[in-house]
Design brief:
By secondary structure, the protein is of the alpha+beta class. The protein is built from 15 helices and 20 strands. Strands 14, 15, 16, 17, 18 and 19 form a six-stranded antiparallel sheet that branches. The chain has a five-stranded mixed sheet with strand order 3-2-6-1-7, covered by helices on one side. Strands 10-11-12 form a three-stranded antiparallel sheet, with helices on one face.
Length: 516
């Protein structure tokens, strides 16, 4: 993954974690719950930067050790010794206001109602430490023995529920606002399938299902797909099976196999292995993805790179390539596949130049490319462009984000298959979704998409995630009984290690793919 992709990933995730935690922070402050610390990144032992308003003045510290909590050991009045729990852990109580006021002026433990803001030195995630809450920042033994009125655990269940939902809500709303802002700034370009009179290109996995090259899809389970992405969504993600196509003026009914989605993932994974092997052998090789289906457009040369195969073979801008070694290649993907099948080989390229058929012998390098740029789909079909005013962009952004979230949720049925688990990726896979050059549209689109994913994943009823807290709070509201802090800690620990296992597996997949 290129350095620029890592930078984009770090900026996007940092931004999303901060606004997520701001959601928790905002609702906590609304209900007068103390927020002890608010950090971007993790800060074990020390912080790169921290600040807090103490004694009416903002205090700043750089590369400083962390501040101890404003708590003191709980003393047993009978023995005058520090009290311990059943496991031998020391128990603490919050300092009284008299004890806090007795601290030296400028001590960061003073003014406990004020939040300490900071940046950690481990560039991963961030946190919002809410007083009286058992979470990733503190265990049950870290809490004072008696609940305090300014603590999370002292608030009503519905208030705690809103504090927990705050992060999810902010990520979800932020994603919709980002999509709306993008539509307002850039507008929307789309290419309806109804404009594509040449039909579509189908990969072998779809040809095996009965499709033929240049078939036009009329409907899938009775619904007309509007865009190319809708076809992939319907067939692979949603598993729809009944397809009607138009073929040479006739209507043909096709029935897809039940395992089409998993077969596609298996073929795509195998193809990815081959592409990774090529990339490991040559670091300049650009991996290709398996194309399920595409537009059926001719391969027309748009530019020729100097000192490459096409340049020495005499190809020029405007040449339309129609065959490789005598095999017809009437569309772009066919040309690309034919070239990839002849690395380090001499081939004969058939092409038309000004309606005149010609041939050129080229020596293809190990990349399986000629050194040309091809004309994009927009050179053959003009996309529909729609501008959005400020007020129009808001509902349009909501609709776009909601549809994208629905598509992501539908994909979960494939994640729990063997093929889906194999394709699961971690931070490397996410980073590769960003472009290798900086592009503001792509950056904000990916950031908004990740914000949707963060909201959805946190809503899942998994211990240690927000959704786990939500489930427990709903049970409390139904039963009227609050779960003890010790049990909450145990549940969180189970969820934490499950998440660690998932992270290890997903990122392990990335590492494995990088070397094997």
């Amino acid at each position: 993954m290129a350095a620029i992709q890592w930078i984009q990933l770090l900026i996007a995730l940092s931004f999303l974690v901060v606004i997520h935690e701001l959601g928790h922070f905002t609702f906590a402050r609304i209900f007068k719950v103390r927020v002890e610390k608010f950090y971007m990144f993790i800060n074990p032992r020390f912080s790169l930067f921290r600040m807090k308003k103490v004694d009416g003045k903002w205090r700043f510290a750089f590369f400083a050790p962390n501040v101890e909590p404003a708590a003191t050991e709980l003393i047993d009045p009978l023995t005058n010794q520090p009290k311990k729990d059943d496991k031998g852990n020391l128990l603490y109580r919050p300092m009284t206001m008299d004890e806090i006021n007795a601290l030296p002026e400028g001590d960061w433990r003073r003014d406990p109602d004020n939040t300490e803001w900071g940046i950690g030195w481990v560039p991963f995630g961030g946190y919002c430490s809410i007083a009286g809450m058992v979470d990733e920042t503190k265990a049950a033994t870290d809490l004072p023995s008696e609940p305090q009125p300014w603590e999370y655990r002292s608030k009503k269940a519905w208030q705690r529920l809103l504090i927990i939902l705050g992060g999810i809500l902010v990520n979800f709303v932020a994603a919709l606002l980002m999509f709306g802002a993008m539509l307002h700034h850039w507008g929307d370009d789309s290419l309806p399938l109804s404009k594509i009179d040449s039909g579509l290109y189908y990969s072998q996995v779809l040809l095996d299902e009965g499709f033929r090259q240049q078939d036009k899809i009329i409907s899938i389970d009775g619904e007309e797909p509007e865009f190319l992405a809708d076809v992939v969504e319907s067939l692979i993600i949603e598993g729809k099976r009944n397809v009607i196509v138009q073929r040479q003026g006739e209507t043909v009914n096709l029935t897809m196999s039940e395992d089409l989605g998993t077969r596609f993932l298996a073929i795509s994974n195998d193809y990815d292995r081959i592409e990774r092997a090529k990339a490991r052998q040559d670091k300049t090789y650009k991996k290709r993805r398996y194309v399920l289906l595409s537009y059926y457009i001719p391969f027309v040369v748009d530019s020729v790179l100097p000192n490459h195969a096409a340049y020495y073979g005499g190809l020029q801008r405007g040449d339309s390539i129609v065959s490789i070694n005598g095999e017809p290649t009437p569309c772009t993907v066919m040309v690309q596949n034919a070239l990839a099948a002849h690395p380090c080989d001499s081939i004969v390229v058939g092409y038309y130049r000004d309606t005149v058929y010609q041939q050129a012998r080229l020596f293809i390098g190990d990349h399986g490319t000629m050194g040309v740029g091809m004309r994009p789909i927009t050179a053959f079909y003009e996309p529909d462009h729609k501008e959005y005013g400020f007020w129009e962009s808001i509902p349009a952004g909501i609709q776009y984000g909601w549809n994208l979230l629905a598509s992501y949720v539908h994909q979960f049925r494939l994640v729990f298959t063997k093929e889906g688990a194999e394709s699961l990726g971690g931070f490397g896979a996410i980073g590769n979704m960003f472009p290798s050059v900086w592009d503001w549209y792509s950056f904000w689109h990916m950031t908004a998409f990740l914000s949707l994913i963060l909201a959805f994943m946190n809503f899942l009823p998994i211990p240690a995630l927000d959704g786990g807290y939500v489930l427990l709070l709903l049970l409390e509201m139904i039963t009227g009984r609050q779960l003890p802090d010790k049990w909450l800690e145990k549940i969180n620990n189970i969820g934490f290690w499950l998440l660690i296992a998932l992270l290890i597996y997903a990122n392990g997949n990335d590492i494995f793919k990088a070397f094997f």
